[in-house]
Amino acid sequence: MKITFKRLTECTVQDTITAWNRGFEGYFVQMEMTAELFFNRLVNEGLSLKHSLVAYDGEDPVAIVLNGFRVIDGKKTAWNGGTGIDSKYRGMGVSNLLMEAAIKVYSEEEVEVATLEAIKENERAIRLYKRHGYEIINSLVYLNGTLEADHTPIPFISIRPEQLPTFHFYNDKVPWQCQWQSAKSGEAQIYFDGNEKPLGYSLYKRVWNQDGQLEKVILFQLELFNDIKKETIKSIFTSISGEHQKPVNFMTINSILSNPVIPFLLDLGFEKKTEQVQMIKKM
Questions:
Q1: Which CATH number fits domain 3-133: 3.30.460.10, 1.20.120.530, 3.30.1490.190, 3.40.630.30?
Q2: φ, ψ of residue 210 in degrees (nearest 5)
Q3: At a CB cut-off of 8 Å and minimum separation 6, what does 166 contact?
């Protein structure tokens, strides 16, 4: 076995997709992708062809790591958007070589903070990341639930996701996929109390079916600043969905478990679907 690395800009599309699908075969959640889905994800989540890597054993693509870069809180930050190893090569040291190669890319790009998320049950991957200097900073959760959209919408204004960072209360210390840059095709709202003071904001994406009906709402962020009430959350969800008659399915993405909104959602009948850990490495 002789492992070499190529940037995605040097790989064929077929090799890249093969490396991804082999690398995530039998994973905790379904990760198989077509070329169209894969490259859409690269664009939507700001991942870099130039800085992502495929590992080869000879001519055979056997592993992949995707990388993206942003300036967050004034620091150049890297995100590992997926590390997959062909099942036949797991336990053979390929994962260590892949991480070393990725961290070398980060050093070349003068990254200050490296970040990633890992499925909570994926203990092998978490041990790997810890060996390479990552530490767990947050527990994350995917929630799914259906709410009756029958409440009076709360006072709000609608803005573009790109406008969120212009507000002093915007929280950019959230997982990569929850940041406004990963939700440019989404929507955002800011909520107010009776005195026109900001109560909080949301960042979300509404998904419509072929009949033009609302299928679900993907919630990237819901931040509330002060006294949180169940009725307030229900009113916010009515504002987000735009529906007043029928139940709406909501799904949260990588919500930080310590967010005070989470217990209210669980109390409203939302269910945990997946739990992850957020990890960082200070370069």
A1: 3.40.630.30
A2: -70, -20
A3: none
Q: Which amino acid is at 214?
A: L
Q: What phi-psi label fits residue 110: left (phi over 0), alpha (psi between -120 and 50 degrees) or beta?
A: left
Domain boundaries, the chain: 3-133, 142-280
CATH 2.160.10 fits 142-280, yes or no: no
pLDDT one-digit tens code per residue, 62-114: 999 999 999 998 999 999 999 999 999 988 999 999 999 999 999 999 999 99
pTM of the model: 0.91
Residue 45 has pLDDT above 80, yes or no: yes
Number of H helices, E strands in the chain: 6, 12
CA dihedral 198, 199, 200, 206 (to 10 degrees): -100
CA 10 to chain centre: 26
